[in-house]
Amino acid sequence: MKNIASQVRRDFAADSALATGLAGYARREEQINLAEEIGTAFEQKSVLLAEAETGTGKTLAYLVPALRSYEKILISTHTKALQDQLVHRDLPSVQKALGIGRKVALLKGRSNYLCPQRLQRSITSPELESRTQKNMLKVLKWSESTTDGDLSGLDFDVFAKGIGQMVTATADQCLGVKCGEYDVCPLMKARQRAQSADIVVTNHSLLLADAALKSGEYGEILPMFDAYVLDEAHSLPELACQHFGIQLTRLKLIQWLNDMQALLDEMGDEPALKKDVVAAGRDVLDAWLKPGLDELKDAWHGMFDLAESRRERSEDMARIADRAGEILVEIRMVMQPADGFVGWSDGEGENKRYTVAPVETGPVLKQHLWDRPAAFVLLSATLRVSGSFEYARLRLGVDVADDSFHATPFDYSRQSMIYLPRHMPDSRSPQGVEALTDEMETLIRASQGRAFVLFTSWGMLNQVGPELARRLPWHVLIQGESGSRDAILETFRKDTHSVLCGTRSFWEGVDVPGEALSMVIIDKMPFAPPNDPLLKARIQRCEEKGGHGFRDIQLPEAIATLRQGAGRLIRSVDDRGVMALLDSRLYAKAYGREVVRNLPAAPIKDDLSEVRWFFEEQDQ
Description:
There is one protein chain. The chain is an alpha/beta fold. 49% of the residues lie in helices and 12% in strands. The chain contains 26 helices and 17 strands. Helix 14 (294-308) packs antiparallel against helix 15 (315-335). InterPro entries: ATP-dep_Helicase_C, DEAD/DEAH_box_helicase_dom, DinG/Rad3-like, Helic_SF1/SF2_ATP-bd_DinG/Rad3, Helicase-like_DEXD_c2, Helicase_ATP-bd, P-loop_NTPase, RAD3-like_helicase_DEAD. Pfam families: DEAD, DEAD_2, Helicase_C_2. Belongs to the helicase family. DinG subfamily.
């Protein structure tokens, strides 16, 4: 077998093709050590848990051994931005520098690809509004020239325009090899490319969806691999709750009803059945608004019986009857979650949503992923809590794994400062929001904009964000008001003195090096809401095993999230900035010292004048 680790060490030598041929390459010992560890994991088919702090260069550290390996490798990320960066920038440049030509394929989830069959069916519908029809015609024109059917190639978001469901197919709606458009289907072509590629780049959601399918009755999305590299691995537990659980919404029922109606329209010879389906559909939607699920179960059972009575008419009808049966099973599971799962509902009326999720994600991930005969490399800048991998091991379910830590090359003591004020009142008190807003305004004026303001809740964002926009002379971008996440980030990067106010989606996966981001403000410790049903179930399970809910779950979870938020600030060796956490409980509570241990190794100040001096010194 090829000794990948030894080859990797040679690739990172000072006179190597990589060092001389890759633009911007800088030798980093921690990066080389990580690359060797990854090469060894590939060779030994072992599991590696690695924290590589910001600036280590973990992307290159796994791309080199992946390219040097002869085996079939999957690289999975959490964010689309990193996925696209790998395929369109990083992999081509590293392959060119090394002179290696391994076959690479990009595979996204099905909602990213055009479904030609649904486009044709939807665009001919006489019920299309003029605005919708205009957008549909744009998609049709684009479809004639696109080479891959990836909807990101459009100059607008089809889901934001309300036509996403008309031009894409869910797994339930997809006809697979029975579809008349199968030979030209962008999704199927992408999957075929993935089957024959040496390296496939995808995302965690698709990987977990595939793992769930492999355990059921349906076909796989992804082939099997010899090695899996999971970047941004800290996000896996939360995603596992979604993919190995259930989400039941009114929209899911409506999609089935619409598909049933469309099928009956195509058949054209079942007027009595169509009338019964319309009536039963009304009963279903009325039952959705009632408390509890008993009436919904009964109403949907009637709908299932109608579909089942015509199962023999066609394969399409059999398929839609199967889907009705699956939804009936989900309703029953929501009413009575299986052992090891917890269920809850949120929202009201038509927006109500029922969720069932595994209480512990470790066993689920182990069963569906880590038990495969393959190498697994799990990477993130934030896998440890207080210097330990124990919490990550528990959440990820990787009992038998090597672990390694690779420190950042950034000099936080010189490049940054941490501001932890002692005087902030409880943000829930009447004076708390006003004091928080005043403090944020003062800090942002000191940095002359150039700030991320990260909130732990939508409620606080909606209270404080508009007030900051009113007070400050710079452009204040507010999540939910100022456009899509990508549009907000693009504006922030271009407008050097702008301010971005956001919630959890901006705490990670955001890279803004340079002057545009010089201040990160976090309103308070990001503890999960104590009334969260899943958190309560996890705490109960933890305490049943003799653990302590706050110490073993709530605090590690909050620290891990805080480390992600703090990591937005320093993204290069030339960056300078201040991270402010406006939560004086760090001085009053016993856990404060533990939190501070997990912050970057920067000087900690509690005086606003120190922040002003930091920026005045920077501007000189």
